[in-house]
Amino acid sequence: MDNTFWVISKVVWGIVAPETSLLILLIFGTVLLWTRLNKSGGVIITTAVFIIAMISIFPFSTWIFHPLENRFPIPSKLPEKVDGIIVLAGAENISVTAARGQPSLHGGGERLTTFVWLARLYPNAILLFSGGSGSLINQKYKSDDTARKLFDQLGLEVERVQYESGSKNTAESASKSYQLVQPKPYQNWILVTSAFHMPRSVGLFRNAGWQVIPYPVDFNTTNSSSMNFDLREIGRFSQGVREWVGLVVYRIKGQMAEIFPKPYP
Predict the structure, then answer these.
(1) What pTM does this model have?
(2) How is 111-162 classified by DSSP, letter by letter?
(3) Same domain membership, residue 145 and residue 23
């Protein structure tokens, strides 16, 4: 059942994601220009271009990211004793790593560099890298292939890290990681992931029975917002929308106790 949901969610989002929807509108409108419905085609193209311009110029992505990234602050002080550190996959460019033989990252490399820093800060802590592959068509290569290569380059003993490579999404990462290490209620575990992804991650880890200490990294926003002239804003906007949709969907599925998890007092 969970696997079916994962496949459906990947396919549906691949179609309705903002950047995909806008591309479909542009293609469809262009096709109509060569038919008797050329006026309708012009309206569709104009609408798509207007939306692209609005997202590229005005800080819509910042407005979407701000509440996500500000939900869990960076800890001002960490515990003296940390039993374990978890880092979630997501920064790894799996296919390029496999093709080129050296670690390749998307945005979000701070997840792994912060993990290495914390590992050195707490030399006795259990280390866990969690995440497999989210690809629908290729499950041969996993995120940990990239992580192992990068850890080795950064001087972290690869053998010191435990790897959970069977999960395909954050919900599976939370449950499979819990099953793998069996954390005790009294232990201190730090969770490292991108700031925008932290609310959903914390909610899913709590649902798995794990009270983690959030350590957000990979911030996309500052304390202010300003206009941009950058087409890349469409990708950021889409990423933010996807995260909010994920929060709602996991709450509806009963895998989180609340739509927008918050820090404990």
Answers:
(1) 0.93
(2) HHHHHHHHHHHSTTSEEEEE-----SS--SS-HHHHHHHHHHHTT--GGGEE
(3) no
